[in-house]
Amino acid sequence: MTLSFFDQFMSPTYLGIPLIALALSLPWILYPKPTTRWLNNRLITLQGWFINRFTQQIFQPLSLGGHKWAALLASLMLFLITLNMLGLLPYTFTPTTQLSLNMAFAVPLWLATVIIGMRNQPTHALGHLLPEGTPAPLIPVLIIIETISLFIRPLALGVRLTANLTAGHLLIQLIATAAFVLLPLMPTVAILTAVLLFLLTLLEIAVAMIQAYVFVLLLSLYLQENV
Amino acid sequence: MAGHDAGTQHQFTGIAKYFNAYTITGRRNCVLATYASLAAIALFFKLKPKKKPAVTEK
Q1: Coiled-coil stretches, from where to where (chain B) (predicted)?
Q2: Is residue B9 predicted with pLDDT exceeding 70?
C-alpha cells in the first residue's frame, strides 16, 4: 500500500469498525468530574478555574439572555481545544481536520443564533443587514452583500478550523519527512530542518488553542448580535 | 463615530420616513423591500411563458 501524506486525515477504522466515536469521546474521559468536597484537588481546581475564567471572558459582553449558552460554548471550547491538542501527538488522528465535524458544529449553532434573533427581535435582526448611513443608491447592493456574508458565516467557521488544522498537520509531516530524508545526505541541513520542525510544532500548539478559541468567540459574537 | 448624528435625531418626511438607512425600522423596511423585489423578479422569470422555436418544414 502506497502511503500518501493525506493518510493521516483518513477516518480511523480497525477491522472495518469505525473508530471515530472513540476518537470523539476521548476528551470526555480526560477531564475528572468535580467532587462533592468543598475543596477539590489541584487538577480539578485548575480545570474549574480555567472553565470559569474562559466563560467570564466570553460572556462578559453578552446580555443576560445570551448567558443560557454558557454551558454549551464552554463545553464546545473544551472539546475543540482537547481534540486539537491531542491531535498534535504523533500518529494521533485529529477529528477537527474533518470538514464534516466542523460544519456539524458550525451550521446548527449559527442557525440557532439567526433563528433566536429573528424570533426575539426581528426588526433589529433584519435592520443589521443594512449598515447605518449607507447612501441611497448603494442600499440594495449592500443588502445583498450583507445577506451573502451572513450565509457565508457557517461555511467560514467550519472551513477556517478545518483548513488551519489540516495545513498545520500536513506541514509538520512534510518537514519531518524532509528532516528524516536529509539526515544521511546533508546532516547540517537536516538539523536546521529539525529546528524548523520544533518551531513549527510550537506554532501548531498555539494555533490549536487559538483556533478553538476563535471558533467559540465568533459564535458568541453572532449570538451577541441576535440577543 | 465623532460628528455623526444619532439615528433618533433624524426627522424624515414622505417615503424617507419609512425607507431610510438611519433608523432601525427604516433599515428593516429597506431590507424587506429589497427581498420582496428580488422575489418578484425571480417569480416573474419563473412564470414568464417560454417561447417555442418555430417549426420549419424542409
Answers
A1: none
A2: no
pTM of this structure: 0.88
Predicted complex ipTM exceeds 0.90: no
Give the best residue of A128, A130, A148 to mutate against chain B (max B CB count within 10 A).
A130
* Chain B hits for A134, Cβ within 8 Å: 21
A11 backbone φψ class: left, alpha, beta (φ>0; ψ -120 to 50): beta
Cα–Cα distance, A179 to A186 (Å, whole number): 9
Name the strand (E) or helix (H) holding A17: strand A17-18
Q: Residue B34 to residues A69, A138, A142, A144, B37: CA-CA distances in angstroms?
A: 33, 12, 10, 8, 5
Decide if B31 and A136 are in contact by the 8 Å CB cutoff.
no
Length of chain B: 58
Choose among B24, B25, B31: nearest Cβ to A143.
B31
Distance from CA of B45 to the nearest CA of A (A): 19
| C-alpha–C-alpha distance, residues A212 and A207, integer Å | 8
Cα A90 from chain centroid (whole Å)? 20
> A127: which chain B residues are within 8 Å (Cβ-Cβ)?
24-25, 27-28, 31
Reading the block at residue A67, the C-alpha cell is 448567558
Q: Which amino acid is at B51?
A: K
Q: Determine if residue A165 is left, alpha or beta; phi over 0 gives left, psi from -120 to 50 gives alpha, anything else beta.
A: alpha
Average confidence (pLDDT) over A128-141: 92
Lowest mean pLDDT across A128-142, A167-181, B2-16:
B2-16
The Cα–Cα gap between A160 and B57 comes to: 60
**Structure confidence at residue A117 (pLDDT):** 95
* Cell numbers linked to B48: 414568464
- Block residue for cell numbers 448603494: A138
- Tell me how far apart the alpha carbons of residues A58 and B20 are, in angstroms, rounded to a whole number: 34
Domain residues of chain B, as ranges? 1-58
